[in-house]
């Protein structure tokens, strides 16, 4: 059954339903007030909602549920195809598909479904363009387009944000942290103290032994984050500038001072 035929049946049912309401109210005046509060246009059946959904998308019905939404009733229909799950919202009176959601990407009913690039393809495009490694990637729907929002980090420690059109594979946005590559290049060429030098400084300052040490890029510079334990068993955390060796933060269990006075 075509969509036009289904909508035609719904319209005819609405007219007939209105005529029945008028007849009932005239035969039984006592119930007229109640009948006036009844919707003059009846809702479509769940079976008709299924037909409308399958006329839109070829597949199998997984579930149909009647729900109230924004002062109107809608059927929420889930359809499974061979490669995706589709959720539709159908106006329970008019039979109009008011929303269609495919694999978490909301599209309007006027849009035709078309293939999108895979996550792996998006990663390949991003890494080839920047020479950096992807840290995170998320598929999102924005401004009528399906996009990949990607975060990367290059070997300089610079963070990069990129947006890729999921249908065309074109990069629509590209942003480098602080938008200042020269600054990051200078940081990269600066000499850093070694892990052993950082350990020696920390142990000399605290009299404790280093348990772990990690070099990270944070706040526009490289830092060493360290954990130490002293003879009393107190745990100490230190953040050290990897270029100057200056202790930026000192935190000891049960200590009042968080900052190290250097």
Task: Provide a short characterization of the protein structure.
The protein is α+β, with helices and mostly antiparallel strands and about 260 residues long. It is built from 6 helices and 13 strands.
Helix content: 25-40%
Looking at how many chains there are and whether they match, the oligomeric state comes to single chain
Kindly name the structural category: alpha+beta
Helical segment tally? 6
- Contiguous low-pLDDT stretches (5 residues minimum) are 13-26, 29-39, 104-113, 179-189, 255-262
Strand content: 35-45%
Largest sheet: 5 strands, antiparallel
Report how far the terminal alpha carbons are from each other.
81 Å
Order of helices and strands: HHHEEEEEHEEEEHHEEEE
- The count of strands amounts to 13
Q: Measured on Cα atoms, how large is the radius of gyration?
A: 32 Å
- Average pLDDT score: 76
Describe the structure.
- The protein has 262 residues and is α+β, with helices and mostly antiparallel strands.
- Helix content is 28%, strand content 38%.
- A hairpin with a 5-residue loop joins strand 8 and strand 9.
- It is elongated and about 85 Å long.
Walk me through the topology.
Elements: H1 3-27, H2 32-36, H3 46-56, E1 60-69, E2 72-80, E3 85-91, E4 97-102, E5 105-107, H4 119-130, E6 133-142, E7 145-153, E8 159-165, E9 171-176, H5 181-189, H6 195-206, E10 209-218, E11 221-229, E12 235-241, E13 247-252
Antiparallel strand pairs: 1-2, 2-3, 3-4, 4-5, 6-7, 7-8, 8-9, 10-11, 11-12, 12-13
